[in-house]
Design goal:
binds zinc ion, alpha+beta, DUF674, 17 helices
Length: 501
């Protein structure tokens, strides 16, 4: 399938113009598929597409400290990476739902679609049924396992006109803060009541709001930065990163047994308990960089449910509640949204987070149409009668979570700028911060699942990722501790080895 022509999707809105509020939106499968597809995008992709928006007048959006992390990759010299490819894959993160998202009416992922190659000689035998399976690869210099010729023919893709994640004919209402629910009078009435609407006369209907890709980018932005995404989207409120809720809970999740811990040191400003910087080995930097490869839906699934959430998390919660069959097309697609897997090449079995690997992006092929002597195909993970089996022989170069090479020492600032460590650069940075040396102490962090979940949340919502994410895991200055009023058990994850400057 060639680059999809810029299309538009439509929304119906019910608004209260006096209060500048969108009460709810009514949407079909085209729009909801796009909204749900946000969950399949790796964090690195979200940072990249929001920073490279085609509309130059738009504000450059920063997702917490993730933009600094992404920029660190492009600023780090190639020599610090295991291979050049390790750096390249971080700068052009790919989604494991790429095949599905090609069919979206508007796909905001900017990565060039992967090409798939099959055997020119064997495809006819496959079509006629002589071969039960066909070999396919993302590489055209791999030999066919039937006849040993190279897989030279690129498959032309077609759009089968089907919806992607939700049933084609389904209809939804969407609340201002992005809860997506089946469209029926009960849900609409529930939204009206929760908005405190008493007088229908105050409401106005916007029948067909056209949305193109720049509006979808804007909506993605609002889903992170706004508490009322649809109102801020429609009424064009200027979004500021300060509007991100400053939630600093001590997120606790069940530790996976025997999960490994990473040890590194942080410099804490005693008077403020702020973490000024961390100095660490390649293992902590590899953890941080791997976060760019994790899809948003998986990131959200790592947070426990009992915290004040972002609007983007409401989209995730909505998918959890929708029935398979009636609203979502299959359990496999539901899981792809709630717990999207990592592409094989990014997958690291010893990762602190329980990540899963997507081995194959597709398993089945269907010829959907023929035009001008060319066949057009659709590929899929789900099997139906008209689809035939594909054997994937794509070469996979596994990075296995090791992006930067060791032994190297790195310095990580509070807002996640990663640079190679030298004593000079470290002291120069501390001097820049104008913190007196006697106000700085060194502490050791033993970084496991709980610390990682807290840091992930802080990285998503704040530019003080280390301070906010690790605040429960450092020993606090006694004066501060009484004012913070946290029981000492909150800090049980800390093993302190205090060193002074
Ligand atoms: Zn062949």
């Amino acid at each position: 399938m060639a680059d999809k022509k810029e299309t538009e999707v439509y929304l119906k809105l019910v608004i209260d113009r006096n209060k500048k509020k969108v009460v709810f939106a009514e949407a079909n499968s085209d729009f909801v598929d796009i909204l749900f597809s946000f969950l399949t995008l790796p964090m690195g992709t979200i940072v990249r597409i929001l920073a490279n928006r085609s509309d130059p007048s738009s504000r450059k959006a920063n997702i917490g400290s993730f933009n600094n992390l992404y920029a660190s990759v492009s600023n780090l010299d190639t020599m610090y990476f295991v291979t050049k490819e390790c750096r390249d894959v971080l700068l052009s993160t790919r989604s494991s739902a790429e095949v599905q998202c090609r069919k979206l009416m508007i796909n905001i992922d900017d990565v060039k679609p992967t090409q798939y190659f099959v055997c020119d000689l064997c495809i006819d035998k496959y079509k006629s049924g002589s071969y039960a399976s066909l070999y396919v690869s993302t590489c055209s210099t791999v030999p066919c396992h039937h006849c040993q010729n190279f897989l030279k023919r690129a498959i032309d893709f077609d759009d089968d006109g089907e919806s992607v994640f939700v049933a084609k004919t389904s209809s939804f209402v969407i609340s201002d803060d992005l809860h997506v629910i089946p469209n029926n009078p009960t849900s609409t009435l529930g939204i009206l009541k929760s908005c405190g609407i008493k007088d229908f006369a105050a409401l106005e209907e916007i029948n067909t709001l056209k949305l193109g890709s720049s509006e979808i980018f804007h909506l993605l932005e609002c889903s992170f930065f706004s508490k009322n995404a649809l109102s801020d989207f429609y009424f064009g409120k200027k979004l500021k990163s300060v509007e991100v809720p400053t939630i600093e809970p001590s997120l606790r999740t069940e530790c996976t047994g025997g999960a490994k811990k990473i040890t590194f040191k942080v410099y804490v400003q005693k008077s403020t308990n702020k973490i000024l910087l961390a100095h660490c080995s390649e293992d902590f930097v590899n953890f941080l960089l791997s976060l760019l490869t994790v899809p948003l839906g998986k990131v959200i699934s790592l947070f426990p449910g009992d915290h004040e959430s972002l609007n983007i998390e409401h989209i995730h919660q909505s998918v959890t509640k929708l029935n398979v069959g009636e609203y979502l097309k299959s359990q496999q697609l539901k899981d792809m949204l709630l717990y999207p897997k990592l592409l094989s090449q990014y997958f690291c079995p010893s990762h602190i987070f329980p990540l899963e690997e997507q081995n194959s992006l597709y398993k089945y092929l269907k010829r959907t149409s023929t035009a001008g002597g060319r066949d057009f195909y659709s590929i899929s993970l789900d099997s139906t009668q008209s689809y035939k089996y594909l054997s994937d022989i794509s070469p996979i170069s596994k990075i296995g979570g090791g992006f930067v090479r060791g032994p190297t020492k790195f310095m990580v600032t509070d807002d996640l700028v990663v640079t190679p460590l030298s004593s000079m650069s470290c002291f120069a940075y501390l001097q820049e911060l104008k913190v007196p040396l006697n106000d700085i102490e060194e502490q050791e962090i033993h970084f496991g699942m709980n610390e990682a979940v807290n840091l992930l949340w802080a990285s998503l919502t704040s530019t003080s990722a280390l301070s906010n994410g690790l605040k429960f895991f450092i020993l606090k200055n006694p004066k501060q501790e009484t004012s913070v009023n946290k029981p000492s058990a909150e800090r049980s994850g800390v093993k302190l080895e205090q060193g002074h400057f």
